[in-house]
């Protein structure tokens, strides 16, 4: 036993501060948040413990999931995530494919594509709020004004203010901002494929399409999976860009905005329940990825 302590003691002592901090500030706060979501804390007095609060079980979750407004937010989140994912994967792969073909001034193009990543979502939301302005015709400016100038007035619309599909307009700035990151992932994947492998496929008579389908695409599948997980979980937690452009607009409401509005209006238990639901949604995406990676490491 003493030998085991000498063997495992130093490593455990070394990582124990991190484990303690992780336990308190991550898992401890997650548990605290869930406990609050099962109570009826709806004012500052109850939050501080000066006023009593009672346990309501899972009523907060039942009320939220049956609420038409929250269902609208979940629907918006699904649409936003799908459009965001497809857009960033498409443009990221396209730009990486073009750069992989040894274009001139590759460094310049790479910097241009990556530049939006250096801008915060809040800062870019100020610009995109102007570009996606709702005014039309003689009051138009932003993109609606551009369409008016080039005589494409039929393209003018109310962008994010459309209750059904307005959230798709807010995916445009997100795609612009994160496509460069996905491009960097795919470009690293392209550059990691040995040139000898491509030449061998061409010598065997493979066309360019077959080369990509049977050689390059399989090699890029881990990169694509990583991009889906990273971009997917970012879109599920999206708040600053959406709130910065659309503010409290019902048409562009997503769960993260609902959480903020509930918290700032004193509905602390409701906000905690929204946070827990978001955690579950993100976990549904992340956990299969972690299981897949663990299985790959064992092979």
Structure characterization notes:
The chain contains 13 helices and no strands. The chain has 299 residues and is mainly α. The chain has one domain: MetI-like fold (Orthogonal Bundle). Helix 6 packs parallel to helix 11 (240-246) and helix 8 packs across helix 10. The longest helix has 36 residues, at 2-37. It is flat, with a radius of gyration of 24 Å.
Q: Which structural traits does this protein have?
A:
single chain; 299 residues; mainly alpha; MetI-like fold; 13 helices; 74% helix; 0% strand
Quick take:
The protein has a single domain, classed as Orthogonal Bundle (MetI-like fold). The protein has 13 helices and no strands.
CATH architecture: Orthogonal Bundle
**Relevant CATH superfamily:** MetI-like
Q: List low-confidence stretches.
A: none
Helix content: over 70%
Q: Determine the mean pLDDT.
A: 85
**Helical run tally:** 13
Question: How would you describe the shape?
Answer: flat
Q: Given this structure, which CATH class is correct?
A: Mainly Alpha
First and last CA, distance: 33 Å
What integer value in Å does the Rg equal?
24 Å
Largest beta-sheet characterization: none
Query: Total number of β-strand segments?
Result: 0
- Structural class computed from helices and strand pairing: mainly alpha
| Overall tally of domains | 1
Task: Estimate the strand proportion.
Answer: under 5%
Can you write the helix and strand succession as a string?
A: HHHHHHHHHHHHH
CATH topology: MetI-like fold
């Amino acid at each position: 036993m003493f030998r085991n302590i000498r063997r495992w003691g130093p490593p455990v002592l070394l990582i124990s501060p991190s484990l303690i901090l992780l336990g308190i500030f991550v898992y401890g706060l997650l548990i605290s948040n869930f406990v609050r979501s099962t109570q009826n804390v709806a004012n500052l007095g109850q939050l501080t413990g000066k006023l009593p609060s009672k346990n309501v079980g899972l009523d907060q979750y039942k009320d939220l999931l049956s609420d038409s407004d929250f269902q609208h937010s979940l629907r918006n989140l699904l649409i936003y995530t799908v459009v965001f994912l497809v857009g960033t994967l498409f443009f990221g792969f396209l730009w990486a494919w073009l750069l992989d073909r040894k274009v001139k001034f590759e460094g310049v193009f790479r910097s241009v594509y990556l530049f939006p990543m250096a801008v915060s979502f809040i800062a870019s939301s100020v610009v995109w709020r102007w570009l996606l302005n709702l005014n039309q015709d003689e009051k138009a400016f932003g993109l609606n004004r551009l369409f008016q100038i080039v005589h494409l007035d039929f393209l003018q619309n109310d962008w994010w203010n459309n209750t059904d599909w307005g959230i798709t307009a807010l995916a445009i700035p997100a795609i612009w901002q994160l496509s460069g990151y996905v491009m960097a992932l795919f470009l690293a994947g392209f550059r990691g494929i040995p040139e000898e492998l491509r030449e061998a496929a061409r010598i065997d008579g493979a066309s360019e399409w077959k080369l990509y389908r049977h050689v390059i695409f399989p090699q890029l599948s881990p990169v694509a999976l990583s991009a889906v997980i990273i971009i997917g979980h970012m879109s599920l937690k999206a708040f600053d860009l959406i709130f910065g452009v659309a503010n409290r607009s019902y048409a562009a409401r997503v769960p993260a905005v609902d959480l903020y509005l509930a918290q700032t209006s004193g509905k602390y238990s409701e906000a905690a329940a929204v946070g827990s639901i978001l955690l579950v949604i993100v976990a549904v995406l992340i956990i299969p990825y972690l299981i897949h990676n663990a299985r790959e490491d064992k092979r």
